[in-house]
Amino acid sequence: MGGGGRLISIHPEQLTFEVELDKPSYCNLKVVNNTEHHVAFKVKTTSPRKYFVRPNASVVQPWDSCTIKVTLQAQKEYSPDVQCKDKFLIQSTRVPPSIDIDEIPADTFNKDGIKVIEELKLGVVYTSPFGHANSEEDYGLTSSAARRSRQSSDDRMMQTVQRLKEETDFTLRQNQQMQRELEMLKRRKTRKSDAGFSLTFAAFAGLIGVTVGLLLNLLISAPPTE
């Protein structure tokens, strides 16, 4: 806001925060003393739990300025309100040069009818990381897009987990099938080996029997020697 005879001017005229979930956002305000007097100021907000203001009260020397840093606390979810309704109020008044900046009296900004207390009201605007202000359309689209993005991400993760589970189960079944086939091959090989040995032994025994029989026949049929 311009000077216009006021004690102080505030730049910019509204607080703008780029909002991302789980991340704090910052906005700086410049307070300009438009007079030849010492001016004290105090910052108030309609949502003190959401914002951290430093300094929230101080004294600006004649024709000098100072910077206020306002921090929007990290948000866990997008506000259900289409537009931000938070407001800031900055009060200012003339003070003596001897005032202690670190210990401004509590009654400095009391409206007692004697001293002049000026007030400036500032609005708040939230923007998306893509640079759009929080109009009804933009903010609604941002919130919907964020919800769809989270849902889509969850769905993709579930699909990936399910696919990995199915692939793991298939691999286990394949391994079990291969183990069963190997066991069957081993048993078949063992049976064939045993059968081959039995036939060989029987043939060998039969050959011996035939040989022994021929020898006996030869001995029996041979004429006795005198």
Using brief descriptors, characterize the structure shown.
about 25% strand; about 230 residues; 1 helix; 9 strands
Task: Tell me the fraction of residues in β-strands, as a range.
Answer: 25-35%
Strand count, sense and barrel status of the largest sheet are: 5 strands, mixed
* Strand order, sheet with most strands: 2-9-8-4-6
Supply Rg: 48 Å
Number of DSSP E strands: 9
In helices, the fraction of residues equals 25-40%
Order of helix and strand elements from N to C terminus: EEEEEEEEEH
**End-to-end separation:** 156 Å
Which residues form runs of ≥5 with pLDDT under 50?
Answer: 135-141
Number of helices: 1
Oligomer status = single chain
Q: What would the principal axes of the Cα set say about the shape?
A: rod-shaped
Classification by helices and strands: alpha+beta
Mean pLDDT: 81
